Amino acid sequence: MKNQLAILRNDPWLEPYAPAIEGRHQDVVRKMEELTQSTDGSLSRFANAYNYFGLHRNHKGEWIFREYAPNATGIWLIGTFTGWKDDERYRLRNIGEGTWEGIFPADFIHNGDLYKMRVEWEGGSGERIPAYATRVVQDPETHIFSAEVYEPEKPYEFKVRKFKPDTKPLLIYECHIGMAQQEESVGTYEEFRTKTLPRIAADGYNAIQIMAIQEHPYYGSFGYHVSSFYAASSRFGTPDDLKRLIDDAHERGIAVIMDIVHSHAVKNEVEGLGRLDGSYDLYFYGDNRREHPAWDSLCFDYGKNSVLHFLLSNCKYWLEEYKFDGFRFDGVTSMLYYNHGLGKAFGSYDDYYDGNEDTNALVYLTLANILIHEINPKAITIAEEMSGMPGLAVPFEEGGIGFDYRMAMGIPDYWIKMIKEKKDEDWHPTSIFWELTNRRADEKTVSYCESHDQALVGDKTIIFRLIDKEMYWHMMVGDNDGTVSRGMALHKMIRLVTLATINGGYLNFMGNEFGHPEWIDFPREGNGWSYKYARRQWDLVDREDLKYRFLNNFDNSMIELVSKQYDFQSLPVEKLWEKDDDQVLAFRRGDLIFVFNWSPTQSFNGYGFLAPAGEYETVLDSDSPLFGGYGFVDDSVHHFTTPDPLYSPSGKGWLKLYLPARTAQVLRMVRPKPGRRATTAKKATKSAATSKATEAKKATAAKKAVKTAKTTKTSRKDE
What pTM was estimated for this model as a whole? Predict the structure, then answer.
């Protein structure tokens, strides 16, 4: 099947690795056939473990409980209904193939009851929380976790049954429920819904990416040491509270992406999956690969069908039960390689095909993407991956792993390096433009300046690196401190150039849009279990006497600018000018021209560069007083290109502007010069039509691929 996959046709440099790429593709086809042979080829019907395992009511109103524990010799349900002691009436029976089952009268278990399993195995026993528990709570005094029966009299009913995310472009606001509040405490789903969500909507973002949803014993893990994969964290409220939040977001036109952790699991045995049935390899590797060398956690064995059943069903559960619009998969690099990608530079294609790749993990991730898009074709999947493996965000039918986007993890690292290591005079436009646009043409990315990682204690946000301690003394309106002025100017420019060069989506972490000061530090013994830094100080941006609102105003304006340009992320990024000596960069997207003067000292009057001939108006100016600038540019002035006989035949002229030092401007074409062959608007329309045609072709190709794999896709009716 040489050169049959589009990924090989699109990138000739991958040709030497065709056997590996084609082999991975066939591995997925074979595994999908194996898993779906009893479901008429439907991966969605296979991924139903949560409807079988765990605690449910049957059609008679009785309680039925099942657990997969092949190493167990005996299992009892214990809880408030047994006085936390063994009761033969609550003993499970082994029904074969590693499954244990118990059927109990309706009055044996009640809403609000706490429970666990007591599991016996050869040589030992222990209390365990069921793997499929959908509600897990912690006792505030003993700090012990238990599963809880959650059966409200009136379950929450979604008002928005179907939702279509806006991805043209995708503008993500990354957030954490617990620290989204002003008070020094753990925030709730309801507080986030009523207080934070309106702010996000007002800021113009069309998606939120929520961290720490899956239950985790240690709050300070930021949600990345998961114990109960099917339980929404109870420290933030009830399952219905989370559903109400998601429903409200959808009513506001905001998609909700879950930060899902399938790369590893917490080591805890009492709260987590470690040794659930006494064995070491039920869900995880049983050899030296069991423990992650850097994260102090356990690594899933993706080669086991039972593990695939658990994880794939988990994806479906959050989509179906809570109506999440997709997932950001955490730690994908760690999953892809046997060495977890640690200590490897990935400098050439050889590094992606040298035998260090975990084929089982690659198969799982591909199946997860196929499943998610089978359930909801409009779902969003994002890979947190830093090695740059080709094909990660290429559709499966084209030879890829199937993610919609990959995180552009090199960009925040680049900005940190620039701020830490380069003098302002050495910020070269050629380097900036190359770094922000250096990506595979066939893969969409999510660009960002900084995420939660840069905000944690031990690191610094961009604004804190730029201004540092001066933030505590010189953020009052009217205080013209030079350090603050420089920091605010660069903060705006860095964000604008990062957003302006996207080819998929853009992400901002909660509070960074207005330059939230200080770091994130969760309560721990070292800080006296304080919540002082595990929160967001919204009052700073609300105060008229502080400069934070200027940064927020700018963020709002730039988000609004790209939001109004339909399919902005698909418009070609056309470089118009870059000159390192002057530190000036200019590029065009559609009718918009972005101009940056990175020089800390040099302003230019009548600085010219070639642009499409016509009339231009200023639509965004980082130096505007509205954004805390000095207002050196008269934004009401329209700019006309100057004809040049040499370039007139190609429809270009010289656009001459006043460029103050350390500022950015965005201009929009009002109308082209007479005689111009095609307007940008027409090109944009053509681009949109082409994009739709491409999507249609991909959909057809996907159907063919699924047919080849002997699958039958079931999809929801398009909204």
Answer: 0.92
Residue tagged active-site, from 215, 271, 330, 621: 330
Residues 6+ positions from 347 with CB-CB distance below 8 Å: none
Is 384 annotated in the active site? Answer: yes
Instruction: Write out the two tokens for 465.
Output: 């690196």
CA atoms of 524 and 652, how far apart (whole Å):
61
CATH number of the domain encompassing residue 595: 2.60.40.1180
From the list 358, 384, 385, 623, the catalytic residue is 384
Q: Which domain range does residue 655 map to? A: 572-679
Q: Is there a contact between 631 and 625 (Cβ–Cβ < 8 Å)?
A: yes
C-alpha triplet 375, 381, 382: angle, nearest 5°: 170
Report pLDDT digits (tens) over 354-401.
999 999 999 999 999 999 999 999 999 999 999 999 999 999 999 999
Integer Rg of the chain from CA: 27
Using an 8 Å Cβ cutoff, are 215 and 150 in contact?
Answer: no
Confirm whether 269 is a catalytic residue.
no
In a domain, 301, yes or no: no
> 517: left (phi > 0), else alpha (psi -120 to 50), else beta?
beta
- Domain end marker among 148, 168, 188: 148
Reported as a single tens digit per residue, the pLDDT across 242-271 is: 999 999 999 999 999 999 999 999 999 999
- Tell me, what DSSP letter sits at residue 716? P
d(CA 575, CA 578): 8
